[in-house]
Amino acid sequence: MGTYGRQDIVFVKGEGSWLETETGARYLDFASGIAVNALGHSHPRLVAALTEQAGKLWHTSNLYRVAGQERLAERLTAATFADRVFFCNSGAEACEGAIKVARRFHFVSGRPERWRIITCQGAFHGRTLAALAAAGNPKYLEGFGEEAPGFDHVPFGDLDAVRDAIGPETAAVMIEPIQGEGGIHVGSEAYLQGLRSLCDKAGILLILDEVQSGVGRSGKLFAHEWAGITPDVMAIAKGIGGGFPLGAILATEEAAAGLTPGTHGSTFGGNPLAMAVGEAVLDVVLEPGFLEGVQQKALRLRQGLARLRDQFPDLVVEVRGQGLLSGIRLSSAPAAVVAAAREEGLLVVGAGDNVVRILPPLTVADHEISEGIERLSRALARVSSPSNT
Questions:
Q1: Residue 235 forms beta bridges with which residues?
Q2: What is the residue-wise DSSP string for 286-314?
Q3: Three-state DSSP class for residue 8
Q4: Which residues does 42 contact at the CB level (< 8 Å), separation at least 6?
Q5: pLDDT higher than threshold 70 for residue 166
Q6: Alpha carbon distance 123, 134 (integer Å)
Q7: Does the global pTM surpass 0.90?
Q8: Are residues 152 and 174 in contact, defined by beta-carbon separation less than 8 angstroms?
């Protein structure tokens, strides 16, 4: 179906931070499948985990215990705030499920009137009907009938707006600690701490969508750790599968209490293949020094982007981000720079608010960061002075 405006490139091979086309052209991948390929392409430990499991068992369904689910859930709960995990296949499913967790929590607690969710303008929570309504972006809602009810939208970063929106029907606040699709807007420590406090005082849940910002992308295992807070519910996906479809809902024991047998489910969620890859991703990301290495790489990338801002002041307005979830805000729409970067053999991604997202694998080498900055510099030069290219 005609749902994608695809670029005319066919990739047939990938290794580390690089992709290769059917014609042999090589591209430095600073898109990472939109923050999915956390460990780059064809990481040997992920390949080994997947192929070993593929020779054993692919699918049994959730009618039975799945050993890989139990192991991965134990590791995720040990490394996070969570006590309970539900496995699914995507970020949209994780966000949709998190909404159900919040509403069901209040229902079983004797507060069925609490079902509305406060969300933020500029958010992106996926493409299902409820996730689209949660984000409230008219561009994505157009033509799909009446918007799913139950969401109250406030400006991102505005604690007073959240406070004013909380009412007797409010079940939760749901935000991305770093808005990715919306333009790399980073929630401040004070904002996230304030949200935690507001939710505690109102007796409502704090849901964090860390689909894009999680699993090391911010330089911590999860971005909310920078603010020293914990959510009640968290949606994750993308990086946890390293390229294999995998999502999860993480929750405290109390928040998860409403999900009893029959209230939620997934046919493919938590299948043995996904669990094997998810474990391998954690093996790498939780190794001593790995996240500190991401932070050092992020500093190197940020310094390079700052130089580009100084080099192209009329085009690059601002450098944004946290960790290896970075972006540059332009004075015009990002499409021309994304296309010019592609001509220079560099893959980047556009976002809202005239932003170009720069999302290298967490395993990117220092020399590849330097190479990426150089290629992006040439792309910006193309756009700044098209007559000279």
A1: 209, 249
A2: TSTTHHHHHHHHHHHHHHHHHHHHHH-TT
A3: coil
A4: 14, 15, 16
A5: yes
A6: 8
A7: yes
A8: no
